[in-house]
Write a structure and sequence with these properties.
Length: 196
Amino acid sequence: MGKLLKFKRPFPTRRYRKLFVLATEGSETEPRYFALFNSQTTTVRIKCLITGTDSDPIHVLKRMERHLRDNKLKPGDAAWLVVDTDQWTEEQLTKLHNWSKKREYYGLAVSNPGFEFWVLLHFDDGAGINTLRQCIARLKRYIPNYDKSHIETFRLKPGIPSAIDRARLKDTPACPDWPRSIGTTVYRLVEKLQAG
């Protein structure tokens, strides 16, 4: 009679999901939006550092620096700042841009006039938009109940590829730091999230 072989079942190992730490200016719209990329089936994990009452760029940067001091990133992880141009000064935005150049896994995503412009690009090209008020009014054509605390992300998911294409087209030639006219570089972050 032959020898009985013991079969050893290998322990299942879970593949490491890259961590993207995002310090956002907004405490509602941006975290809700980026939660789209944070499911068990994605290859990335998103951690949004929620802003308090201090949402100016320097406080967004300080929040990120504090987090990175207390929590080390692993190879493949990334840290991004996500802000709007709003009424922020060139000097404030330059500090964020300079920080983003310190490491290859740091990034800066800026929307002009606001993050809502990125959201709008999921539905149309944003032609004729000059102000945040105009942007929100147009966005309400597609998401009638839209406000910062109510963003129907299920409506956005199908439009992500179009939003990337539209934002890239507006960012031609690619701005080296942030859009000075109407536009957004959030597409650069979203491409990285999708690439895993």
